[in-house]
Specification:
single chain, 242 residues, mainly alpha, three-stranded antiparallel beta sheet, 67% helix
């Protein structure tokens, strides 16, 4: 691990535990931290200039998201997201977010429609600017708003954790298989279906968007890890009910 620079720390306005979490996430994204390698909690605390307590708090969040695992009395390791993990994550998201989009369309208000339009517009700007981190933050907010409108409060929390499990790994289909503009375009029919109260169309569009994303990420994980697995077969194994 190298010393943090102005691009990674400090994360102003965040707790120390959140700063630790974001530093580790950035280190995974940049390849500074490698899967399977053992890292010291003590060394990380010294590197960031904080006590071990917030380091452990931040790492516990990452452990819950599946990014790292602790090795008793030795430190922690970064855990790679397996293709099976990715398929399971999206099978769960499909089971939660598709019916949520249906309910959100049935309960759509002017306030919700305005909020969806505003987020979509901001996503388009972020896509044009190639601001990937901002883009996926807005993407998260959009899905979160739909879950809230559907009154799926427990589901909202579950989906947030599932998204963290992929984003904390630095996993994205952007630039490798599709552009940020492509991703915005996948959200548009979801938004239009909800705004117009066409529940079946909203649910179908959400299923299509999540299926596209999930299949790409499963195939990407297989390719990155050099595994001999049939991506379509694995996807069907986990999602054929959705």
């Amino acid at each position: 691990m190298t010393s943090p620079d102005s691009r990674t720390l400090p994360y102003r306005g965040q707790s120390l535990a959140d700063q630790v979490m974001n530093y580790v996430r950035h280190a995974v994204l940049t390849g500074e931290m490698k899967s399977g390698q053992l890292y010291s909690v003590h060394q990380l605390a010294e590197l960031l200039g904080v006590s071990r307590s917030p380091v452990r708090q931040g790492l516990l969040v990452l452990e819950e998201a599946g990014l790292i695992e602790f090795s008793r009395n030795r430190g922690f390791r970064v855990v790679p997201t397996s293709p099976h993990d990715m398929a399971e994550i999206f099978s769960l998201r499909l089971s939660i977010e598709v019916p949520a989009a249906h309910r959100a369309a049935q309960a759509c208000t002017e306030e919700l429609a305005t909020g969806l339009d505003a987020l979509e517009a901001r996503m388009r700007v972020a896509a044009e600017d190639e601001a990937e981190e901002l883009f996926f933050s807005l993407d998260h907010q959009l899905h979160d708003l739909i879950m809230s409108a559907a009154r799926s409060h427990r589901g909202r929390d579950i989906v947030s954790r599932l998204r963290a499990a992929t984003r904390l790994q630095g996993v994205s289909t952007a630039s490798r298989q599709r552009t940020l503009q492509d991703i915005v375009a996948e959200h548009t029919p979801v938004i239009e279906g909800i705004k117009s109260g066409r529940a079946v169309e909203a649910a179908t569009a959400m299923r299509r968007h999540l299926t596209t994303t999930g299949q790409l990420l499963v195939a990407q994980a297989i390719d990155d890890q050099g595994l001999d697995i049939d991506a379509d077969g694995l996807w069907s194994e986990y999602t054929n009910h959705y």
